[in-house]
Design brief:
Keywords: Membrane, Signal, Transmembrane, Transmembrane helix. This protein has 4 helices and 20 strands. The protein has 427 residues and is of the alpha+beta class. It has 2 domains: 259 residues, Immunoglobulin-like (Sandwich); 124 residues, no CATH class.
Length: 427
């Protein structure tokens, strides 16, 4: 009699839940999770890091509190809903008489079983779910003895999954795809509960015998248990299942944020994408125009004579004594190099500086050309005053023009007269 009373009260809290989502049509839904009215845990005191294992017949100490929960204030008594990987029915156990917010429970499941505990108060306010624990052998005793646990009557269901290969107790229905749970016996109303670890559960209530569809609004690889209970206490559960990665992602935002906020996020994302696209287009246009201007500038520089002396006032006046600066009919690679700033020696004047500038012309003779034919000069440099050997009368030696005899493997040098120094000082 006592067991029947506890069982009835244990399932009554599911149907007294004011926040459960009621459906009457056979349509898949993305529903919000339940609000948390309190929190609980059964961590071992003094253990710095939680180790999610429990020895067979080990006693765990549950404790709960209101804390910073934002849901409805809880009302005693409290109940545990335990899911396991071994059994296909959930266990509902009353956690004390409500006089204190703590409870000791001896976990009876065999080693290798994975279990998960969720809590509710008498009105169906959720306390959330803890993470899944794994049962391990008890090393303190060879034959541990546990208290008996009562199995609720099994509810017949027809589960389906739209993800291939279909439904499985430990399957991977893809995220944002649908699962369907149809009761085949029991009395309405029915409550479908989705319970991920460390997360508030999802509830859908149905008042008919039609299938209850739910869209898997969980990210890929997140585990969860699924259960269905009837008004008279029949129950069914499967799990742990996992959300698969092959489905779409459009359903995930409604399951984590409010609908109005989801719409504002989508609108903000659209505006952000628009301005981001305009910014990128503008940046690309600026980059293109800069490159085009640089290309035109380089092209205009390439049209100039690369051998033109930037200092025309110091060019030799006798143009017959220097090689032609016009390119020949043959194709030549040429370049111009101007040395660093001139360094004037101590006591030199501007005229001395002008007279100390030398021009060295270097020309290469092509292998297939006449031996006396000059090709355009490839380099021009300015000498520095005080660094060249002066003649006895203070004048610089005449410039030397040299070309390499590629056929004979020797260099020939020709000394030409020094160009006259301009009479007028150029500033």
């Amino acid at each position: 009699m006592r067991a029947q009373f506890v069982l009835t009260r244990g399932f009554w809290f599911l149907f007294s839940c004011a926040t459960c989502h009621l459906v009457s049509a056979v349509t898949a839904e993305v529903v919000p999770s339940l609000d948390i009215g309190f929190t609980f845990d059964y961590d071992i005191p003094g253990q710095p890091i939680r180790v999610p294992t429990t020895a067979q017949c080990e006693t765990i100490h549950l404790k709960w509190q209101r804390g910073n929960a934002q849901g409805l204030s809880p009302m005693a008594p409290y109940f545990m809903q335990i899911y396991t990987s071994t059994f296909i029915t959930p266990f509902t156990i009353q956690a004390g008489d409500g006089s204190v917010n703590e409870f000791d429970y001896q976990v009876p499941f065999a080693p290798g079983t994975r279990y998960q505990i969720c809590m509710y108060d008498s009105l169906g306010t959720s306390g959330g779910c803890q993470e899944m624990y794994t049962m391990i052998p008890n090393i303190t005793t060879q034959n541990p003895q546990c208290k008996n646990v009562t199995f609720p009557p099994l509810l017949g269901v027809e589960p389906k999954s739209s993800s291939p290969p279909g439904w499985s107790q430990f399957g991977f229905p893809d995220q944002c795809t649908d699962i369907s749970i149809k009761p085949v016996n029991g009395t309405p109303p029915f409550i479908l509960t989705i319970s991920p670890p460390l997360h508030p559960p999802f509830n859908i209530t149905s008042s008919t015998m039609d299938p209850i569809d739910w869209t898997v609004s969980l990210g890929g690889e997140i585990p969860f248990f699924v259960s269905l209970v009837s008004s008279e206490g029949f129950g069914w559960s499967n799990g742990p299942l996992h959300a698969g990665l092959n489905g779409p992602t459009g359903c995930l935002a409604p399951g984590t944020i409010s609908k109005s906020k989801a719409h504002s996020v989508a609108a903000g994302a659209g505006l952000g994408g628009l301005f981001g696209g305009l910014f990128l287009a503008g940046a690309a246009w600026l980059l293109w125009t800069t490159l085009e201007k640089r290309k035109q500038k380089l092209k205009s520089h390439a049209l100039l004579d690369p051998f033109k002396d930037p200092y025309p006032q110091i060019q030799p006046q006798n143009q017959n004594q220097i090689p032609s600066s016009q390119p020949s009919s043959a194709t030549h690679d040429s370049s111009m190099e101007i040395s660093g700033p001139m360094i004037m020696g101590v006591g030199t004047t501007v005229k001395d500086r002008e007279s100390s500038i030398t021009n060295t012309w270097t020309a290469n003779r092509s292998s297939g050309s006449n031996g006396n034919e000059w090709t355009p000069p490839s380099r021009m440099s300015r000498g520095r005053a005080g660094m060249s050997t002066q003649l006895g009368n203070g004048e610089l030696p005449p410039p030397t023009y040299s070309y390499a005899d590629h056929q004979g493997g020797r260099d020939e040098a020709v000394n030409l007269p020094s160009p006259p120094v301009p009479e007028k000082e150029v500033r």
